[in-house]
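Hey all, quick one. A colleague (J.T.) asked me to put the NAP job into the tracker so the inputs and the structure tokens live in one place instead of scattered across chat threads. No bug as far as I know, just bookkeeping. Sequence used:
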Amino acid sequence: MGEQVFLVTGASRGIGAATARMASARGYRVVLAARDASSTARLAAELGGPDRAWSASCDVTRYEQVAGLVQRVEEQWGRLDVVFANAGASVVTSFTAEDGAPPAEWGDMVLTNVCGPAFTARAAMPALTRHGGHLVLTGSAAGRGVRPGSLYAATKWAVTGLAQAIRAECVGTGLRVTLVQPGLTDTGGIPASRAADPKLAPEDVARAVLYAVEQPPTVDVNEILVRPVGQDAHR
Ligand SMILES: NC(=O)c1ccc[n+]([C@@H]2O[C@H](COP(=O)([O-])OP(=O)(O)OC[C@H]3O[C@@H](n4cnc5c(N)ncnc54)[C@H](OP(=O)(O)O)[C@@H]3O)[C@@H](O)[C@H]2O)c1
């Protein structure tokens, strides 16, 4: 991959960290973004330090932080080739009962999962377009089917629509847009009620991301749904 630059949001753990590791192993220089830069700093050191990987504190719900990060990447490395808009949050919700998080706590999830990738796309698109780049968004299998009471699923339906809207606007720019929709993945974020369900490893999702990114520049893998063998159709 030479000197290509691959930015990952939500890179401090789970799917984002696994994808950053895999991209780094394939030769990309990586930028690791999360709110808590201490975890991403450890990962950046593991991946070769400042010439190969650097970490940044960035809250994707704050447009100015995402735009500032993209600007720093271009100033430091002169290019931006792949952006993985992956940061996400999940709380359990119910519209009919007291189960799950109280409504006062729902807003952060909506901002992170919907405004996060939207702001990331808006901030990165000019740089990506300059370099014939690739935007990859983390949706979810939950963004394709009905999940009773789940506002999280509704945010991931929004990501499905967002990817399509961005791709439609990018016609003629050479930019590629891929939506990756993982099924249940073994990271810190899964609810206790699903602990016994079959799960992907974060690396399984990372391979799907790299598969899309490593296609020839004329090939746009629009969507990848990747689920563990045996995952129930409605989970
Ligand atoms: N795990 C699953 O079963 C599953 C299935 C389908 C889709 N997904 C999606 O895959 C993505 C990654 O999930 P995961 O399970 O790997 O998550 P995770 O282990 O909970 O990690 C979430 C990552 O996002 C970062 N993050 C959260 N809020 C942020 C914000 N406002 N700004 C910047 N970074 C933020 C976290 O770092 P900080 O807290 O330091 O900011 C962390 O790096 C999410 O979009 C999730 O919805 C997950």
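Adding what we noticed when we looked at it: The first strand starts at residue 5 and ends at 9. The first helix runs from residue 14 to 25.
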